[in-house]
């Protein structure tokens, strides 16, 4: 494996010298996410395997090419999990791709985002240098938190060679309740419940139906299910695991909507009221993540969606499909864009890594 | 090493800077006379002192912008300062620099139940946030031991933790957004009240950046529901190996306690006369293991924890029966530092993190070091996440003891790195551990850190001499390992 990493480093150093772009790619499960990328593919899958796993330390360290399936299987055998429930979006999803795309699934609501669980990362930078940031422990403030910066960086700052992640025990008990409620009432309930000590791990509202997953200690889940089931009319959902899995993987029917017009992801403060936008919406994360199907796919629609998100203190991403010609991610404030530019120049001086995957400027 | 400016030059410079600041700050916000600036000469690491040239205490964001503009124009280095409770000298002033205190930026702007957030200025005390949120049944979870005094801005600078961070996370897990003034004069928002923000995660880089990347003028924090109940188990162990293994057993059993702390015999003997908590002072190690949640949850979890601790070889187990007793059990751990102050003229509080499984090995090694350095060391531990706080006891009036204490400390940090940990878990690097950074990081990594700073602060004016050592410093202080007959940094001149 060290030989494989050494080859990657040499390849990167050569690309740096020749200033030729490289497309960092694991299983290609997120090829469609972000802006289009050019460049020779550097396939990471040969560099794989779990380097270290200590269940009693709550930490696992894996190489970037490790299949995500494999990692999750190993954790499940010890009754542990990646608490942020990452989407795979394809059979060959790798650990590196998971961290680089920075996407969290339904459980992010209760447990936190992927980046909250990054403890350390080894990065091959644009010169082919191997840099170690963070470590294998949660309490670590030596130096800037570069390893967390790499989460969601879409491979634009370098090749994430190895990553250490905090893991958590699987919940002792889980149950999902379903409620018939309109959007406003759903948002009101979700926000009110989040202010109480209820063991809510995830939620999803669509078309008058709210699904709420309760996870945690037996006593807590049972008590919450009784209270919310009784007073609020929630019914226990059968086959809930499949429901949440399909939601995580965007295989739920909603997501097969108009792809020519695009699937938008809006990140908003959870208390944002129902949006004044046409198109179907699926609301997750207690109101914080809202999926919107575009209706026309026109640039004017994109502008309106972005404006609405910003007005409410959030941002909008053209997540899948639609016309990416006008940008995928919300534009950055100029001062922030400057900082981004300088960070890019630091880690990738020749601009070889996934150029323009995130923004045209880098 | 920077040479101290001569008094004449300093006086002239001070006059120049004060004159430039007068138009932008009210008189009450500007200190220049030594008798007024002396209280700012150190933070919680009082062994490291430097009288600042000028102290600015802005009351508004605009004043912060203006102060930074003056410093940028005149190239005055700036040391931001919260409450000055830091333990790594991160707020130690620069002789010809300005201390920018956030003490007057102390407004709680908004506490919002519906969104479970609070918007506060950086000078607001950590505990004050929880106090303001209490009427809503909410609180701000990260609870460093200094929370009665420390500021949220300081917490952001250090990515502070506390006893409950094992379950509730660090500052980085509980802050949604910071509003920052950069040295270039831009006001930027990192993060958001939404679950994320576009682009790179600059909020994550900024938290823990020790005042080196920008000055915080506002913070939005996440508030969480206050648990209905909490109970703590006090368990005694006959030796540290058993105690250390018990910690691992709790985690391996799938339990994430609200708090999991350990104290060694030296610590419990040190605190018991002070707090009279009923600690077993014969025990080699005492564990405090807390469960919080609803009454039912707590009952269930306490039973599970007690079973695990029993099976792991606890010689005695006591469960708190009421809130007063719970607080009493905790009082020893929380008063470890003042208790140290009672039995020793001075103490040096260390902060390092190690993998939990190395706990017994590290504690035994520290015991051996006590003999080598001729000083006692009491150990308190955030056992749940491996973050140790060895307290090296010494008397600065005894010749050589301060130096031996420092050497003892550096040896402990080197050991932390050796066993796969880190030199600082929550107190930050500051000035105190800057040399140890040379042990933990390669020159390429240190260079990457300098480049990250340049991305935010191209002029190197914000807390310039802290946390990240220059390569020349590493060479100069000889804090390096010689391996295979090759000296690292061999190409750098030594002086």
Largest beta-sheet characterization of chain A: 8 strands, antiparallel
**What is the SS-derived class of chain B?**
alpha+beta
Order of strands in the sheet with the most strands of chain A? 13-10-12-11-15-16-14-17
If you average the pLDDT of chain B, what whole number results?
92
Structural class of chain A: alpha+beta
Would you tell me the overall average pLDDT of chain A? 95
Compute the gyration radius of chain A: what is it? 21 Å
SSE pattern of chain A: HEEEEHEHHEEHEEEHEEHEHEEEHEH
Instruction: Enumerate the spans of chain A where pLDDT stays under 50 for 5 or more consecutive residues.
Output: none
* Oligomerization state: heterodimer
Extended strand count of chain B: 19
Runs of chain B in which pLDDT lies below 50 for 5 or more consecutive residues are 479-495
How is this structure best described in words?
The complex is a heterodimer of chains A (362) and B (495). In chain A, 29% of the residues lie in helices and 24% in strands. Chain A is α+β, with helices and mostly antiparallel strands. In chain B, strand 18 (376-382) and strand 19 form a beta hairpin. The chains are: A alpha+beta (362), B alpha+beta (495). At the A-B interface, strand 7, helix 5, strand 9, helix 7 and helix 10 of A face strand 9, helix 8, helix 9, helix 11 and helix 17 of B.
Can you tag this structure with a few keywords?
heterodimer, A: 362 residues, 8-stranded antiparallel sheet, 5-stranded antiparallel sheet, 10 helices, 29% helix, B: 495 residues, alpha+beta, 18 helices, 19 strands, globular, disordered C terminus
């Amino acid at each position: 494996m060290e030989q494989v990493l050494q080859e990657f480093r040499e390849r990167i150093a050569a690309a740096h010298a020749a200033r030729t772009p490289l497309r960092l790619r694991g299983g290609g499960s997120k090829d469609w996410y972000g802006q289009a990328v050019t460049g020779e593919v550097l396939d990471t899958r040969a560099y794989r395997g779990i380097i270290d796993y200590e269940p009693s330390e709550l930490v696992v360290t894996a190489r970037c090419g490790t299949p995500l399936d494999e990692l999750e299987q190993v954790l499940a055998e010890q009754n542990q999990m990646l608490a942020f429930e990452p989407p795979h979006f394809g059979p060959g999803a790798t650990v590196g791709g998971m961290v680089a795309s920075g996407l969290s699934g339904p459980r992010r609501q209760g447990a936190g985002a992927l980046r909250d669980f990054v403890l350390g990362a080894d990065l091959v930078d644009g010169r082919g240098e191997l840099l170690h940031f963070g470590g294998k422990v949660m309490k670590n403030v030596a130096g800037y938190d570069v390893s967390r910066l790499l989460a969601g960086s879409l491979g634009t700052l370098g090749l994430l060679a190895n990553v250490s992640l905090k893991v958590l025990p699987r919940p002792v008990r889980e149950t999902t309740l379903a409620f018939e409620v309109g959007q406003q009432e759903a948002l009101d309930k979700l926000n009110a419940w989040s202010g109480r000590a209820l063991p809510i791990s995830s939620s999803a509202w669509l078309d008058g139906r709210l699904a709420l997953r309760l996870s945690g200690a037996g006593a807590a889940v049972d008590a919450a299910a009784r209270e919310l089931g009784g007073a609020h009319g929630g019914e226990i959902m059968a086959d809930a695991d499949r429901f949440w899995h399909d939601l995580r993987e965007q295989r739920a029917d909603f997501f097969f909507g108009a792809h020519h017009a695009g699937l938008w992801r809006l990140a908003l403060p959870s208390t944002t009221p129902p949006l004044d936008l046409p198109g179907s919406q699926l609301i997750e994360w207690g109101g914080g993540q809202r999926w919107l199907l575009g209706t026309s796919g026109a640039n004017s629609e994109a502008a309106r969606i972005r404006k609405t998100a910003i007005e409410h203190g959030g941002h909008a991403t053209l997540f899948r499909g639609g016309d990416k010609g006008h940008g995928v991610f919300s534009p950055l404030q100029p001062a922030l864009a400057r900082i981004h530019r300088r960070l890019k120049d630091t880690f990738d001086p020749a601009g070889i890594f996934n150029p323009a995957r995130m923004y045209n400027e880098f | 090493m920077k040479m101290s400016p001569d008094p004449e030059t300093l006086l002239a410079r001070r006059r120049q800077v004060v004159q430039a600041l007068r138009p932008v700050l009210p008189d009450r916000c500007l200190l220049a006379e030594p008798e007024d600036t002396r209280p700012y000469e150190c933070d919680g690491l009082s062994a490291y002192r430097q009288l600042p040239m000028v102290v600015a205490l802005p009351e508004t964001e605009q004043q912060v912008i203006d102060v930074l503009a003056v410093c940028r124009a005149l190239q005055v280095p700036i040391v931001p300062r919260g409450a000055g409770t830091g333990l790594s000298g991160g707020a130690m002033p620069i002789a010809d620099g300005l201390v920018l205190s956030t003490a007057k930026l102390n407004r709680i702007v908004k506490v919002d139940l519906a969104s479970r957030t609070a918007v506060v200025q950086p000078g607001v005390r950590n505990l004050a946030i929880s106090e303001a949120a209490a009427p809503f049944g909410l609180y701000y979870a990260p609870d460093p031991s200094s929370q009665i005094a420390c500021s949220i801005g300081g917490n952001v600078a250090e990515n502070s933790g506390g006893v409950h961070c094992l379950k509730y996370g660090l500052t980085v897990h509980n802050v949604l957004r910071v509003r920052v003034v950069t040295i270039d004069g831009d006001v930027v928002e990192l993060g958001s009240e939404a679950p994320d923000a576009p682009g790179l995660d600059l909020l994550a880089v900024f938290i823990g950046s020790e005042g080196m990347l920008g000055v915080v003028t506002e913070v939005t924090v996440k508030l969480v529901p206050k648990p209905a109940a909490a109970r703590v188990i006090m368990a005694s162990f006959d030796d540290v190996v058993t105690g250390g293994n018990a910690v691992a057993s709790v985690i391996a059993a799938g339990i994430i306690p609200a708090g999991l702390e350990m104290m060694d015999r030296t610590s419990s003997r040190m605190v018991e006369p002070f707090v009279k908590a009923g600690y077993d002072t014969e025990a080699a190690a005492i564990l405090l293991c807390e469960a919080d949640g609803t009454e039912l949850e707590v009952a269930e979890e306490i039973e599970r924890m007690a079973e695990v601790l029993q099976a792991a070889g606890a010689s005695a187990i006591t469960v708190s029966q009421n809130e007063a007793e719970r607080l009493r059990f905790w009082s020893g751990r929380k008063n470890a530092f003042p208790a140290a102050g009672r039995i020793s003229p001075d103490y040096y509080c260390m902060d390092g993190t190690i993998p939990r499984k190395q706990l017994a090995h590290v504690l035994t090694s520290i015991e051996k070091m006590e003999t080598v350095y001729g000083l006692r060391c009491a150990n308190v531990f955030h056992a749940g996440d491996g973050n140790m706080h060895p307290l090296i006891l010494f008397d600065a009036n005894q010749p050589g003891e301060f130096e031996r204490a420092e050497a003892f400390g550096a040896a402990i940090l080197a050991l932390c790195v050796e066993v796969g940990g880190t030199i600082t878990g929550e107190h930050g690097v500051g000035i105190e551990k800057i040399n140890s950074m040379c042990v933990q990081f390669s020159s390429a990594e240190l260079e990457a850190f300098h480049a990250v700073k340049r991305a935010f602060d191209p002029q190197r004016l914000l807390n310039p001499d802290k946390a990240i050592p220059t390569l020349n410093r590493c060479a100069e202080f000889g804090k390096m390992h010689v391996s295979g007959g090759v000296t690292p940094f061999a190409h750098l001149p030594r002086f």
